[in-house]
Sequence to fold (290 residues):
Amino acid sequence: MAEADIAHWLGGRSFADCKAEFDEAGYIIFEEVLDADAVARQRAALQPFLDADVTGRNDFEGLKSNRIYAMLAKSPVFADLVVHPLALAFAEADLGRSCLLSACLAINLQPGETVQPWHYDDSHLRVDRPRDSFGVSTFWAIDPMTEDNGATELLPGSHRWPENSIEGANTAADFANTEIRDVNDDPGARDDAVKAVMPSGSLMVTKGTLWHRGGANRSDAPRLIVTPQYCPGWARQLENMAMTMTPGQAATLPERARELVGYSIHPPFMGYVDGMHPGRLLKQEDRPGA
Fold:
């Protein structure tokens, strides 16, 4: 990623300075990266799925939250966030140019939603801590994130902690729990937690090993974010991207988005199809009559 392509979002700082802050704290926030029109396009594309009001299946997903998955198959406008150069600068710096899109979802916290359990996003790879991060997560604020509406809560520096679990961390029971809790119920409260308060259009980037959680929404309005998450090219993606769309749909995405979905190779040849680069399938889709 050329630094000139992202310089106007860095506030006069060098990328090296921003990366040093990211490495130290485990996260970094850039305010108002998207203008109002770009935010409006994202919201408009999400609206039909928000109107369906499908809520989470368990306490971790959020019983008063809407989660929208398989986003690139639903609208190409979401690729604007997935391949945004500022987000990719951090993903590629930590994970390499062959990184993949591991997950991409929208999360809409309704009023009364409770705090999530503490978790870190690359825990599914089951490699003991302390270790380098195997993921980079991005959080795009479609609505402002405030003290009261469920702003993501973070434990700064926790990406370096050696513990594989902490008090109030997610367990298997959280994925089976369908009991609606009181909004003030917080079994994982901590004095060292900070809230990622930021205006609409802002971007937060976190390390995959950073302990964090969705906050409780004590306001009277929902809080909407979109969170593309990236993994190394050698890791299995959380969301089976290839199954969410046909090759024809993938062919309509920007080239970098296609690579992130999985139409790419992690050197020397991880990801091939029938001994060839998977991009060959998309070229076949482009042929007349295909």
Remarks:
- DSSP finds nine helices and nine strands in the chain.
- The two ends are 34 Å apart (CA to CA).
- The chain has a mean pLDDT of 95.
- The first helix runs from residue 15 to 25.
